[in-house]
Amino acid sequence: MKSLTPFVHLLPPLAEQHRIVAKVDELMALCDRLKAGLAESRTRQERLAATLIESALQAA
User: Fold this and answer.
1) Could you tell me the residue range of the domain that residue 44 belongs to?
2) Residue 14 pLDDT > 90
3) Which of 12, 34, 40, 53 would be 16's cystine partner, CB 3.0–4.6 Å?
């Protein structure tokens, strides 16, 4: 088994690691909100399309 000691492991300072994690958490929460908004928009679009088709068929 080869030794890993020749490799240098560079990590940012602990405070910077915490800042990075906080930013990733913030961005993940934004992604969740965007996904929810997109799902809501799709649902609204489907209801609108169904209503338009129903109205068109009733008018005919």
Assistant:
1) 15-60
2) yes
3) 12
